[in-house]
Design brief:
By secondary structure, this protein is an alpha/beta fold. It has helices at residues 13-17, 27-39, 62-68, 84-92, 106-113, 117-121, 124-133, 156-169, 185-198, 215-224, 252-261, 270-283, 292-299; strands at residues 8-11, 44-50, 76-81, 97-103, 137-143, 147-148, 152-153, 173-178, 203-208, 229-232. 42% of the residues lie in helices and 17% in strands.
Length: 302
């Protein structure tokens, strides 16, 4: 297999995990979780979202989380944004990097943003300028870049159009985000190879949900296609408020076990991540979690 020698895992539990969790958790709890995974060797964190959208109300305290974090040198702390005003909020609280999201699905973007993808894309340039003015890193994020339950397989030409808009706005990195869990290894591999060929200077991330049990297989397919940055969530907690039945992100514990077993370097401590994930399971009373490693640990009585 032609796999990267080293992969960076980005922890998203305090954003993607908590945006659909059963409760709103205190700022101090989010800070504790972030600092725990950093101590375990994680070097990339999606802290939360800066958004006024009604469905993202559980992220309303992201500013306070950023302000209370004891940021560690060499660790990337990023925030999810949708609109220029979100970028301004991120800059005001010391966020180092934004991830600007749009969905390639018309229905999905309308449900989340109240507008078409093309209308959202018209705001990219302003968001990018605000990021540059504040010396912030700028990544783009494309939800449903593979397929959606409304449109089926998303036309590849439209994905390229979105990437070009991000590139023109100054994004240097783009996340391919399968929020519906409809990607399959063949589709993920072929599309990832094609988009990397079309935009060879862009840096790529992968963000997978495990709704249909394809998450780990899709990670391997993307790694075969050259992806070395992958979003994961402790205990597999997560979901999408705009997609009925969507389950959580791929579990940090499961991905880390797989990569360790394959000799792929991550710089992360598996036992410390297991301990952090177990606390997440306890915090949410198991609701919305999905991790093979945590289930095995529970069966062993640990």
């Amino acid at each position: 297999m032609n796999l990267p020698k080293k992969v960076t895992l980005c922890e998203v539990v305090t954003r993607d995990g908590f945006q659909t969790a059963p409760e709103i958790y205190p700022v101090e709890e989010k800070v504790r979780i972030i600092e725990e995974v950093v101590d375990a060797g994680c070097r990339s964190i999606e802290v939360g979202a800066f958004s006024t959208y009604e469905t993202m109300y559980k992220m309303k305290d992201t500013d306070k989380v950023f302000e209370k974090l004891h940021k560690k040198e060499g660790v990337e702390y990023r925030g999810l944004v949708y609109l220029p005003d979100d970028v301004r909020r991120a800059a005001a609280c010391g966020c180092q990097k934004i991830k600007l999201n749009v969905s390639a699905s018309m229905e999905h973007n309308k449900a989340g943003a109240g507008r078409s993808p093309l209308e959202s894309m018209k705001t990219f340039a302003e968001s990018g300028q605000i990021a540059r003015d504040n010396k912030m890193g700028f990544a783009g994020s494309i939800s449903l870049p593979f397929a959606s339950q409304w449109e089926g397989v998303i036309p590849f030409d439209f994905i390229k159009e979105i990437v070009k808009a991000f590139q023109d706005a100054g994004a240097t990195q783009i996340s391919l985000s399968d929020s519906a869990g409809l990607g399959t290894p063949k589709l993920v591999y072929e599309r990832t190879m094609a988009i990397r060929d079309a935009f060879p200077d862009m840096d790529w991330m992968l963000h997978m949900h495990n709704t249909r049990g394809m998450g780990l297989a899709n990670v391997v397919a993307a790694m075969e296609a050259g992806i070395d940055k992958i979003d994961t969530s402790l205990a597999g907690l997560g979901g999408c408020p705009y997609i009925k039945g969507a389950t959580g992100n791929i579990s940090t514990e499961d991905v880390l076990f797989m990569l360790d077993s394959m000799g792929v370097e991550t710089g992360m401590d598996f036992e410390k991540i297991m301990d952090a994930g177990a606390k997440i399971v306890k915090l949410v009373h198991g609701e919305g979690t999905d991790s093979y490693q945590q289930r095995l640990r529970a069966l062993a009585g640990k």
